[in-house]
Amino acid sequence: VVALDRNDSFSASCNLGAALATAPNLLFMNNDIRWCMDALPQMLHTLRANDACAVGLKLMKPNPAQVSGHEIQHLGVRFKLREQAYWPYEAGIEHLDREAAHSAQRVPAATAAVLLVRRDDFHHAGGFHADYFYGFEDVELCLRLERVTGRPVVCRNDLTALHHHGHTRLTGR
To answer: 88 forms bridges with which residues in the sheet?
Structure first.
């Protein structure tokens, strides 16, 4: 644990953690994530076996209106054309067929709420871009990682974590 004298950006904080890390792989994970299963071994396997540059997973978000108490938040990041520009969005079940919601998918990017990368690839790509204070830094990193490494980003939609999206920021904790 490294205590900072101020609340820095997500990019700067992740870059500091990565600079201090000695393990061969880095797991970026928000503090509002709750594991639903033992997903890390399978994510590591995908990073190695599929030669992916980054691995994310399906994120669920709480929704008391649903029978299960939660709904899909993230099945990977895709892009849509709007106003002559491509904008990233977190794909949900309405954007994909049912099979894609339950299998590993090559995607342009995955959210860094839970994102696994090789430490060497992360540093070679230059880490998170410091000009992003909060938002899209993970998308930009994934695009750059794929370009620099030549390997795909994979979202393991067969693995799940619960994301209390924005909980820390919105509750002031």
So the answer is: 79
* pLDDT at residue 160 greater than cutoff 70: yes
Nearest to 14, CA basis, from 103, 156, 150, 141: 141
pLDDT digits (tens, 9 = 90+) for 116-152: 999 999 999 999 998 877 778 999 999 999 999 999 9
Cα–Cα separations (whole angstroms), residue 112 to 79, 90, 136:
17, 12, 9
pTM of the model: 0.87
The CA distances from residue 67 to 43, 49, 71, 167, in Å, are 28, 36, 9, 22
Alpha-carbon span 27 to 44, nearest angstrom: 10
Tell me the residue length of the chain: 173
- Supply the DSSP symbol for 7: -
| Dist CA 118 CA 3 (whole Å) | 25
CA-based angle 93:145:105, to the nearest 5?
Answer: 25
Pairing verdict, β 25-29 and 114-118? antiparallel
Q: What is each CA distance from 106 to 19, 46, 127, 134, in whole angstroms?
A: 28, 11, 21, 25
Residue 15 CA to residue 119 CA, distance in Å, equals 11
